[in-house]
Amino acid sequence: MKARTKSLVVTVARGEAGTKPQRFALLSCSSALGTHPAPGKACPMLEKAGGDPANLQPDPAVACPMLFDPVTVTASGIWNDAYVRFEHTYGNACQLRAMTGAIFAF
Questions:
Q1: Tell me: the pLDDT tens digits for 32-66?
Q2: In terms of C-beta density within 10 A (0-12 exposed, 13-18 middle, 19 or more buried), how is residue 66 classed?
Q3: Mean of the pLDDT values across residues 85-105?
Q4: Can you tell me the distance from the alpha carbon of 22 to that of 14, in angstroms, rounded to the nearest whole number?
Q5: How crowded is residue 23: how many other Cβ atoms within 10 Å of its Cβ?
Q6: 18-22 long-range CB contacts below 8 Å, 24 or more apart?
Q7: Is the pLDDT score of 9 beyond 70?
Q8: CA-CA distance, 50 to 54, in Å (whole number)?
Q9: How far apart are the first and last CA of the chain?
Q10: Residue 95 phi/psi, 5° resolution?
Q11: What element of type H or E holds 23?
């Protein structure tokens, strides 16, 4: 059986939607290729979410301040041979980490 593709380009932009990303990485969970620094932590999270960051659950142990310093992230690519496109603006970097863990931590 052929291995299914599980690769996403992930980006992080300080600001609201439409802001140019400051950094990006290739998160490859189906091969050793990619530029993401922590695929061993990010891939299991995405696997549990069916490859779609919109399905992630927040870490209940993280309490974030109510500061508005928006961070917009995107993820697009192929997961189990289906196209994934995700974009979300979080209120601050803490909220981003609480929701997405290692996926956008690069």
A1: 889 999 999 999 999 999 999 999 999 999 999 99
A2: exposed
A3: 97
A4: 7
A5: 11
A6: 18/72, 19/72, 21/74
A7: yes
A8: 10
A9: 33
A10: -60, -40
A11: strand 23-28
